[in-house]
């Protein structure tokens, strides 16, 4: 059977809309009664859960954005008591505080089934050996995929990140058939496997990739070098984690699970776009108990595709993520905001407030980030050891906030171009998506 939960994956549109309406009413009542933030939002708009009579009424409900999550750190948006929370995850944001999300026991089961549904859709089965090379911990990626692969019945290898030679050794020794990681790391694995001359000793047939944007050319490169099929995945911790949307074996757009999420794609005026037009993906959770969100602006730009798919699933489909509505950068699967970098730099006396962010891909096809900063007048002593100390200090401060290694290029004051308009802070030399 090619479906994990066929009753939902192939449900007819009218029946699905009835299910969505039932679940939307329940979710709205839950946040209205248990989350002060939403209670105030509903009342300020003069509405209540009883006013929801159709799916179209979603347009009258309040919006939720990333700053709302940060403003209610850590548990202000939880809709259940802490004793019902069995796990928390967190993601980085523009400030020093992360976005914290909670899960009930039922949320964890729902998430595992959702991930199993995704993996099954990409052709993964209980006979596969699944190597999960994403970060475990507060990041949702590692445990999200892990639980789904185990729920599916696949032998699961919790490899985590790093130690590339060891990763390849496990892939060879265990006969790994499915790899899950970021696309850029897959390319690095490929180059390392070629250097070790073991590509022909690997048994990979499927790869699932997410955490950063990637192009059709990257997909082709990965598929060609490993001789496998590469599938796109999409998720965000604010909704549940990975698993929100996934490619099927047709590799023609990502399916979003309508029984769990109500999908809107809105233009800059907040109006629903027509099929085929691009806009910002806005999602409402329909089954999350601990941390339900209403009309969450993901910041991701996509297009609605025709819902009919040759795979037989009837769920909403979207294109690959085409970019960001805000200025967030994704570097090796980590969210990086220019404002984060600016906040770090302004606290360092030896440099000015002028900076640029340079992005490129190295010879291993992995993202590299360099921050170019100007030295202040009192920092230029002429001693190389003093410059090295400043460089090291800035790099350490950036790494402590960004959780990613950052190169620092110290330049003389006045080197970075000034402008009367908005400063061009980001120069991205990575391949066009």
What would you note in describing this structure?
This protein is an alpha/beta fold. It contains 11 helices and 20 strands. The protein starts with 5 loop residues before the first helix and ends in a 5-residue tail after the last strand. The chain has 2 domains: 82-326, ANL, N-terminal domain (Rossmann fold, 3-Layer(aba) Sandwich); 334-428, ANL, C-terminal domain (GMP Synthetase, Chain A, domain 3, 2-Layer Sandwich), CATH 3.30.300. It is 31% helix and 24% strand. The strands form 4 sheets. Strands 3, 4, 5, 6, 7, 8, 9, 10, 11, 12, 13 and 14 form a 12-stranded mixed β-sheet that branches. Strands 19-18-17-20 form a 4-stranded mixed β-sheet. It is globular, with a radius of gyration of 23 Å.
- How many DSSP H or I helices? 11
The tally of domains stands at 2
- Helix percentage: 25-40%
- What's the mean pLDDT score? 92
| The CATH top-level class label of the largest domain | Alpha Beta
Instruction: Measure the end-to-end span.
Output: 35 Å
CATH homologous superfamily descriptor of the largest domain: ANL, N-terminal domain
Give the amount of beta strand, in percent. 15-25%
Tell me the Rg in angstroms: 23 Å
Assembly form of the protein: single chain
Total count of strands: 20
Largest beta-sheet details: 12 strands, mixed
Which geometry do the CA atoms define? Answer: globular
């Amino acid at each position: 059977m090619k479906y994990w939960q066929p009753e939902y994956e192939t449900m007819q549109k009218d029946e699905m809309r009835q299910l969505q309406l039932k679940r939307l009413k329940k979710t709205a009542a839950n946040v209205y009664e248990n989350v002060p933030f939403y209670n105030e939002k509903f009342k300020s708009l003069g509405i209540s859960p009883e006013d929801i009579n159709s799916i179209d009424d979603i347009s009258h409900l309040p919006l939720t954005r990333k700053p709302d999550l940060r403003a209610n750190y850590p548990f202000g948006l939880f809709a259940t008591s802490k004793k019902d929370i069995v796990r928390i995850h967190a993601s980085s944001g523009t400030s020093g505080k992360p976005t914290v999300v909670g899960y009930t026991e039922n949320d964890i089961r729902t998430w595992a089934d959702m991930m199993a549904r995704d993996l099954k859709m990409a052709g993964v089965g209980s006979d596969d050996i699944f190597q999960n090379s994403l970060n475990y911990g507060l990041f949702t990626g590692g445990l999200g995929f892990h639980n789904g692969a185990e729920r599916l019945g696949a032998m699961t290898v919790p490899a985590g990140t790093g130690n590339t030679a060891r990763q390849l050794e496990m892939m060879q020794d265990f006969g790994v058939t499915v790899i899950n990681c970021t696309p850029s790391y897959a390319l690095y694995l490929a180059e390392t496997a070629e250097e070790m001359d073991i590509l022909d000793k690997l048994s990979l047939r499927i790869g699932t990739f997410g955490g950063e944007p990637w192009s059709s050319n990257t997909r082709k490169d990965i598929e060609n070098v490993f001789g496998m099929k590469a599938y796109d995945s999409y998720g965000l911790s604010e909704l549940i984690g990975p698993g929100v949307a996934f490619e099927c074996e047709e590799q023609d757009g990502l399916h979003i699970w309508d029984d769990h999420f109500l999908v809107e794609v809105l233009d800059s005026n907040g109006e629903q776009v027509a099929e085929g037009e691009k806009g910002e993906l806005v999602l409402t959770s329909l089954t999350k108990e601990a941390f339900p969100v209403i009309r969450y602006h993901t910041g991701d730009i996509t297009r609605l595709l025709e819902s009919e798919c040759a795979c037989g699933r009837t769920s909403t489909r979207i294109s690959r993520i085409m970019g960001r509505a805000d200025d967030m950068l994704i570097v090796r699967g980590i969210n990086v905001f220019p404002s984060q970098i600016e906040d770090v730099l302004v606290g360092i006396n030896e440099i000015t407030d002028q900076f640029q962010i340079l992005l490129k891909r190295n010879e291993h096809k992995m993202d590299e980030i360099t921050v170019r900063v100007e030295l202040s007048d009192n920092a230029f002593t002429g001693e190389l050891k003093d410059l090295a100390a400043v460089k090291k200090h800035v790099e350490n401060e950036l790494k402590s906030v960004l959780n990613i290694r950052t190169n620092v290029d110290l330049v003389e004051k006045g080197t970075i171009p000034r402008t009367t308009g908005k400063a061009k802070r980001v120069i991205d030399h990575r391949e066009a998506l």
